[in-house]
Amino acid sequence: MKVTLETVHRAASWQPSAGLRRAVLLVVAVALLLGLALPVAAQYGSASISATVVDRTGGVVPNAKVVLKNDESGITRETVTNASGVFVFPSVPPGSYTVTVSFTGLETW
Description:
Layout: H1 5-12, H2 18-42, E1 47-52, E2 65-70, E3 76-80, E4 86-92, E5 97-102
Antiparallel strand pairs: 1-4, 2-3, 2-5
């Protein structure tokens, strides 16, 4: 093959077809949309609230009733402490909460 200045110029000035340009543009657009959407999805989260309920002497309190109340919505969730005095509220959305613990014979706090 004879290489001339004209063949070098044609190779250097190659232009993608309209279909290829559209495909590349579509891939870039989808990547940008996904890249922007993932951080937004990550903004919503949840946490768990857990603690060990003890009396004034430091002894654990099993079977104590624990109420978690969302201060804004008023929605409550209830659980009881286990044999080790531990309670867990999993998957708690962000917000301000009040925790109330009660047990027969003990002051509610």
